[in-house]
Amino acid sequence: MSIHIVADTKSIAPTVLLPGDPLRARHIAQTYLTDVTQYNEIRGMFGYTGYWQGHRVSVQGTGMGMPSFSIYANELIDSYGAKRLVRVGTCGTMSEKLKLKDILIAQAADCDSAMNTSRFGSYQYAPTASFELLHRAYEHAKAAGIGFAVGNVFTSDQFYDMHGDQKKQIAQSVGTMAIDMETCELYTLAHLKGVEALTLLTVSDSLLTGEQVNPKERQSTFNAMVDIALLTLFS
Ligand SMILES: O=P(O)(O)O[C@H]1O[C@H](CO)[C@@H](O)[C@H]1O
Ligand SMILES: O=c1cc[nH]c(=O)[nH]1
C-alpha cells in the first residue's frame, strides 16, 4: 500500500503501462487484458492488472503533468516493485515529419520544469529512454507499417503557456518533434531508480496547423500505440 495507490503489494505487475488519462487506463484494460482486476480507484486514478497473451501487465493512470506523474511512478517503483514502465500518452506535433495520429517513440526529453533544476542544480542532465525498449519499439513500429518517428519530446509544465511560441521556436531549432507533459520525469526517475522506461505518444494535435484528432478517431489511434507498447514489452 502507498499513499495514492491503495493496493496489495503483489497486485501490481513489474511491467506497467502509464496513460495520463485514467479512462484510457480503463479502455486499455477492457480492450487488451484478460482476468482483469482493478487495484486502485483512489482519486479516480484507476489502476488495473491483467494478462496480455499470457503476460502479466498493469495499467495505471497518472494524471497530467510531471508532479502528478511523479507521484504514481515513485509509488509504483518503490512500493510495488515496477521494473518496466511505458508511458502511452498523447502529444502535440511541432514537426512536419510527425503527422496527426502518427506515433512518436521518444528517445529523450527536453524540459522547462523546475523538478530537475531542484534535483541537479546547474548540471544539465539528459533524460533518455531505455535503449533496449526504444530499439524494440522501433522494430515493431517499422514492421507494423504505421506512421511514426523516433525523436525528442519537449516535456512542458504548462499546457497554456504565455511563452509557448518562443519555446516552440527553440524546440524546433534543435529538432525536437513534439510536446507532452510527463516524459522528462519518467526518464529521469527511471535512471535514478535503475528501471527501464519508454514513452510512446500518439499525435493528438498539431502546433503547426491547429488540427486535432476528433474524439471518435482517438480510440483507434491509441490502439495502434498500445499494440506497439505490448509487442515491445513481451515479444
Ligand atoms: O494524453 P496524456 O497521456 O494525458 O498526455 C498529454 O495530454 C495531457 C494534456 O492534454 C498531458 O498529460 C499530456 O502529456
Ligand atoms: O502536452 C500536450 C499534449 C498534447 N498536445 C499538446 O499540445 N500538449
TrEMBL record:
Gene Ontology MF annotations: purine-nucleoside phosphorylase activity
HAMAP family assigned to the protein according to its UniProt record, in alphabetical order: Pur_nucleosid_phosp
The protein's name in its UniProt record: Uridine phosphorylase
Keyword annotations: Glycosyltransferase, Transferase
Xref: CDD domains: PNP_EcPNPI-like (cd09006)
EC number: 2.4.2.3
Secretion signal, residue range per the UniProt entry: none
Source organism, top-level taxon: Bacteria
Catalysed reaction equations from the record: uridine + phosphate = alpha-D-ribose 1-phosphate + uracil
InterPro entries: DeoD-type (IPR004402), Nucleoside_phosphorylase_CS (IPR018016), Nucleoside_phosphorylase_d (IPR000845), Nucleoside_phosphorylase_sf (IPR035994)
Family: Belongs to the PNP/UDP phosphorylase family.
Nucleoside phosphorylase domain residues: 16-220
NCBIfam families tied to this protein: deoD, PRK05819.1
Top class in the EC scheme: transferase
Transferase among keywords: yes
